[in-house]
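In keeping with the milestone schedule agreed at the kick-off meeting, the structural modelling team has produced records for the first pair of proteins. Each record is given below as a sequence line and a structure-token line. The laboratory manager (R.T.) confirmed that both were archived under the project's standard naming scheme.
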Amino acid sequence: METRSAARVPVIGPGAFVVATVVCGALSACAWHTRGPVGWERPIIVALRHEPPPFAHGLLLLWQPFPLVVSTLGLAWIASRSGRLALALFGSAGCVLAVFVTECVLKPLVGRQHLYQSSAVFPSGHVTAAAAWAMFAWLVVSPRSLLRPALLLVPIAVSWAAIATGVHYPSDVIAGALVGGMIVYGTVTAADRIGTRRPAAVIDLRATDHDRLTAGDRPSPSPATS
């Protein structure tokens, strides 16, 4: 029998989290306290800088903090309007957590510097925000909606723009996409599983009590003493 949690949150197996963690770990090891791109990244950078996406700088501006907050609140409003308050709350929290992990944990930890600037670049904050928002939107929209496949283009386009404009390197955007998507999905899934088990137990208990009482199974009065 399909559970309510499985019906509401699409299942991504634990293997996907393991693969994402391994890939992020390998990329972190390659970028660990380096400055500028490593060998395998250079051909990709050259190719993408010759073919930048339209409005590349505008794409990056869309994932600054203020536009991200506005677009995330918009998704939360859509989810709450359809009665999914938990998804609205924890999807928004997952977006905030993903950006926090990137900016305040991974960037200082890995310590990769841009070649021409003194700023940390791994993972990409732009792509983390875009992937987190896209995952939140993927959970909000209907499984039958044609928007779902299109949402994959959001972090891809932002990654392309970030590399083409020289803001980030390929490993930065790959790690950002994995961190953003998996943190949002993990936050929503964990909250959904915890939140659907406990209320279910309460509902089942109340239903049992109600059925027992309406069936006349009430405590019999104690016999009168003479």
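The second protein of the pair:
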Amino acid sequence: MYRKINTVYQLTNNYRQKNDYRFQQLLFNIRHKRVTQEDVDLLNTRLYKNLPQEEKERFRDALKIFPYKKQVECENIKCIRELNVPVTIVSSYQVPAIQPILMETRLIVGRGVRIFLSRNMDLKHKLYRGSAGTIEGWTFHNGRIEIIFVRFDNYTGDTISGCVPVGRVCEIIKTDHNRKNIKFYYHPLELAHARTSHSTQGLNLSKVCVYLGSTEHFISQAYVSLSRTTSLSNLCLLDKREIKLSRFNDKNFMKGYNEQKAELDRLGITESLKAPKTTVTD
């Protein structure tokens, strides 16, 4: 299907990293599989173990990005345990409550737990999917947690003592079971101490901690993870060992490159493989 597309609109300006040209170059080299030893040396300056103590403190509450869900689950639980606060689990429910359960979400709720929105709420005041915040409290109704009060990091609208009330939302699931639709009620919140690389696509983060690992776990893992923030100074690497150039030369990292280049050739836009010449500024 995509081979029927011949018209291309090419985006040429990098606005996210516009004020850090060296970071732009690094990301460009990762994206186009031409990483140098100089790039690797630069990455190693951002290893957590190599940062001064004041910088380590700055990343204490930063989002951590991992390749796999299991790593994310373990890190979220670890961070919540370190809060040392009482927690409870809020589950979704469906109406009618037929079996099997078609969808289910479970959220750990406690004061200080970091979360992000899983859907847009108020675009005008920067409350959209991916917005991060901290749980400050909640209310009960009929034995269930009904409203969760969240102090969002960048929200600019009205609040209740600095917090935004987040209630359950309802989604309609169409099903052939008894020819009835299922109503699915849940809080549009997910844990945000850690997330997978896939789930961070499209996010623009003020600071981020990334675990790369010794090899690429899926196509573009390194590029997606590292490009979530605006500059090298806002990036921290969680790897215990020094990053090696061999990580960016093995078959896992190079996977898909020949197909990518062939498609660019077909569309006549191999010009995009050339590195940027100048930084983009306001």
